[in-house]
Amino acid sequence: MSSIIQLLPDHVANQIAAGEVVQRPASVVKELLENAVDAKATDIKLIIKDAGKSLVQVIDNGSGMSVTDARLCFERHATSKIRQAEDLFSLCTKGFRGEALASIAAIAHMEMKTKQDQEELGTHIIIEGSKFVSQEVAVLPKGTSFAVKNLFFNIPARRNFLKSDTVEFRHVMDEFQRVALAHPNIHFTFYHNGSEMYNLPAAGYRQRIVGIMSGKTNEKLVPVNEDTEIINIQGFVSKPEFAKKNRGEQFFFVNDRFIKSGYLHHAVMAAYDGLLKDGSQPSYFLYLQVPPNTIDINIHPTKTEIKFDDEQALYAILRASIKHSLGQFNVSPVLDFDRDANLDTPYHYKDLEGETPTIQVDGTFNPFTDDKTNQHYSKSGSGSGSVYSSGSGSGSYSGYNKRVEPTATWESLYVGLETDTIESSPFTFENEEEVTSSLFNDNEIEQASQGTYQIHKKYIVSPIKSGMVIVDQQRAHQRILYEQFLLNMTVNQASSQQLLFPLNLFYSSDEMILIEELKPSLETTGFVFEDAQTDHIVISGIPVNITESEVSMVIEQLLSDLQDGIPASSYSQNDTIAKSMAKSLAVKTGSYLTEKEQDNLVNGLFACKDPNISPFQKPTFITMRVEDIDKKFAL
C-alpha cells in the first residue's frame, strides 16, 4: 500500500502559519514595529493606507541587515534571538519565533530595503506570495524599510472576512499605541492616507501617555512607584472621578511588552474598592519589570498573555502599591487625626471662664388671676416681679415701660361657644361601629382597582380584567425610549434645545475617530455639533428629552457599546445609537416613581409597537391570572 503522508510545500506551510500570525492588518503592524524596536531604532515611522489593507510600511533607523541576513529573514524559524532552548526563559526582545516575516510574505506583496551603518550599499528585495521576484543592490540610508502591499491578495476568503476600514484602523491604532507606550524613549510617527495621526518625540512615561491619549489626561493621572525584590512597578492610574464605562485605557506592560491579564486587572479593581461607581472602569498605565526567568511568554500565539511564577505575590504588591498611591495623593478617603486649627480656642480667651447666667423666679406669679398686682410684669424687669433677668441684675426689658392692660380670665376664652358646635366637631365619632366594620369602603376598593403600585422601586403592578400585570420599570422605559429615538432618526426630524453655554467634552484620539463617524447619526437624534477638534468636541444643542448633565453619560455609554466597531449600514448605526441612548436615559431600578409617572410608563409601554420585550430582547412584563393566584392559595 502506498504512503499517504507527505511534506507540505513551503508556500502552503507559510500560508497555514500566517493564519496564526496574521489575522488582520493590525497583526502586520505589530510584528513590523516590534522588529524595528528589536533593531534598536530610535526613530520609527508607520505609514498605512486604507486601514492597512493596501499598504503597511514601517521605516526605522535601526541596525539594518547584511545581504545574507536580508535573504535569510524570510525563511521559517529563522531568528537572531534564539540559539538554544534555554534562551526561551531569558527573553528580553519581542520577535523570537522567526515566523512573522515568512508568514507575511506568503500572503502579500512585500518589499524590503535595508542597510547597515558600516556598509556603503544596501539590499532591495521584492517578494510576492513567498516567491522572490528580485534582489538587488541599492543606495539606501541606514536602517530597514518594510512595505507590505495588498494583504491577503492570494487568499480572497480571508480578505472578505476583514471588517470596515474604520474597524480595522482602530485595531491598527491599538497596536501602535501599545508599542509606543511601551517605548517612550523612541520617536514614533504615524501616517494614515497621507494625514499625520501621531508625532511622538522621545519623552518620559507621563509625556508619552498624554501625547497618545490627549485630552485632559495629565490631570487624571496618579503616579505609582514601588520597588521590591521580585518586581518593580512604575506607571500611573487615574483618579476615581475620571472612571469610564469602557475598558479602553487599561495597559499592562511586563518587561516592555504589552500583555492582557485578568488576574492583575482584578488586583487593580481591588485597590479601587469603594471608590468607583457600579460598572465604572479606571484607566491605568502600569509598567512591571520582573526577572525574565520568572515568566513564560510562549503560551499564546500573539504573546499577549504570559505566565508568572508567583502570581499571588504580584497580586498583593500591585494592589497595595495602587492603594498607597491613591491614599498618598489624597485621592481615597483616609482617617486624619490632626487637630483642625479652626476649632482651637482663641488666644485671648484661653484663660477666661464662662459666665453663668443668673435666673430669678417669682414663685407667687399666677397668670390665671386678675389681681392688679400682676401688672408689674409689664414694667421694668429690674423689680422682684421680673420672671428672668441676665447678667448683674439689670433688666433686659428695662426700656419697655408701656402699660399693658390686663388680659381677660381664661374662662372668657370659651364664652360664646355653643354646645351644638362642640358636638359637631370633626373629632367626634357618632357611628364608630360603622366606620370600623369594614377594612375598605366601596369607593376605596373601586379606586384601588384602577391604580398602579410600585414594588421595591423596581416593578409596577397594575390590575387588569383577568388578573394583574407586573412591569419591569427599567426595561419598559428602555422600550419606550428606543422606539422614540428610532422614530426620530428614521421618520421625523428630531427637535433640539439650544444650550446657553456650549459644552466642551474631551476624549482620546481613538474615541474622537468614533465620534467623527457617528456625527451624522447623532445629529438626527437632536445633537448639534458646533466644532470638533483633535481632542474635544463642542456641543451647542441637545435632544429635548436629554438634560445637559446627561450628555457626557450618553456619549460615554455609546462609545462603550461601540468598542467592537461601528455597524456598516446606516440603519444598524441608528439602531445601535437608539439602544445605547435608551440604556443610558431609562429610569433605573431603585428609582421612586409617583403614581402619575407609573401610569404614564404603563400606558407608554402598551402604546409601543412591540411592548413584550426590551430593545435587548428581555421581557418587559409578565401577567398573572386570577386562576394562577387561586392555585397558590389552594396549596
Layout of SSEs?
Blueprint: H1 10-21, H2 25-38, E1 43-49, E2 55-60, H3 67-72, H4 100-106, E3 109-115, E4 122-128, E5 131-138, E6 143-149, H5 156-160, H6 165-182, E7 187-192, E8 195-200, H7 205-213, E9 221-227, E10 232-238, E11 250-254, E12 257-259, H8 262-271, E13 284-289, E14 295-296, E15 307-308, H9 311-328, H10 419-423, H11 432-436, H12 442-448, E16 453-455, E17 459-464, E18 467-472, H13 473-490, E19 496-506, H14 509-525, E20 528-532, E21 536-543, H15 551-561, H16 570-585, H17 595-606, E22 621-625, H18 626-634
Parallel strand pairs: 1-7, 11-13
Antiparallel strand pairs: 1-2, 2-6, 3-4, 3-6, 4-5, 7-8, 9-10, 10-13, 11-12, 14-15, 16-17, 17-18, 18-22, 19-21, 20-21
Protein name: DNA mismatch repair protein MutL
Keywords: DNA damage, DNA repair, Endonuclease, Hydrolase, Nuclease
InterPro entries: DNA_mismatch_repair_CS, DNA_mismatch_repair_MutL, DNA_mismatch_S5_2-like, HATPase_C_sf, MutL/Mlh/PMS, MutL/Mlh/Pms-like, MutL_C, MutL_C_dimsub
Mind explaining what this structure looks like?
- With 635 residues, the chain is α+β, with helices and mostly antiparallel strands.
- It has 4 domains: 10-200, Histidine kinase-like ATPase, C-terminal domain (Heat Shock Protein 90); 206-328, Ribosomal Protein S5, domain 2; 356-428, no CATH class; 469-606, MutL, C-terminal domain, regulatory subdomain (Ribosomal Protein S8, Chain: A, domain 1), CATH 3.30.1370.
- It is 31% helix and 20% strand.
- The chain has 18 helices and 22 strands.
- An 8-stranded mixed sheet has the order 5-4-3-6-2-1-7-8. A 5-stranded mixed sheet has the order 9-10-13-11-12, sandwiched between helices. A 4-stranded antiparallel sheet has the order 16-17-18-22.
- A hairpin with a 2-residue loop joins β11 (250-254) and β12 (257-259).
- α2 runs parallel beside α6 (165-182) and α8 (262-271) runs parallel beside α9.
- The chain starts with 9 loop residues before the first helix and ends with a helix.
- The model is unreliable at 376-404 and 419-449 (pLDDT under 50).
- Belongs to the DNA mismatch repair MutL/HexB family.
- Keywords: DNA damage, DNA repair, Endonuclease, Hydrolase, Nuclease.
- One of its GO terms (molecular function) is endonuclease activity.
- Residues 377-398 have a biased composition (Low complexity).
